[in-house]
What does this fold into?
Amino acid sequence: MAYGCLASMKTRPGFREEVVSILLSAVGGLREAGCDIYVVGRSEEDDTTIWVTEVWKTREHHDASLELPGAKEAIGRAMPMLTGEFTKQEVSVAGGLGL
Amino acid sequence: MAYGCLASMKTRPGFREEVVSILLSAVGGLREAGCDIYVVGRSEEDDTTIWVTEVWKTREHHDASLELPGAKEAIGRAMPMLTGEFTKQEVSVAGGLGL
It folds into this structure.
């Protein structure tokens, strides 16, 4: 069963584009790691919120990806620019388009 | 600029799978209407919440799609099974995988 994760994070003022760039730099290798969809979006409600939507073949693929050196390095670079406010919704993917 | 929409809805108890089926029945024709990604997921937090993530070429493509006969018909069929509790996050898509 495909696993989906809809997450949001808030950046410190003025740092959203830099964090978006870091998140997009992590795209290489995601497909090989079992990711089908990864979408980085800027909230239209404010200037500091980023939404990341991911679909993985399984939850285990997603969890394992966080241990990849590239992911850890990206998280380390982004963390100082984040406020620490996160949300996360986990879903079991039923289907759709683009999968 | 691609337009993204992350929406949630709550169904009346016992009706989630039926609403999921209706949402998935709307997949045909979406790509032609300008949709790149459409993911229907069941929340893992409860038994009644559905999350729908969509990415469209533009917001105008998304808005126009709601006027399609198939979309109106699907909304009409699902509505009696919903509680009326909705959330919606709109994003400007920066990039990712699967687009």
About this structure: The interface with chain A takes residues 4, 6, 8, 20, 23-24, 27, 30-31, 35-45, 51, 53, 55, 89-99 of chain B (CB under 8 Å).
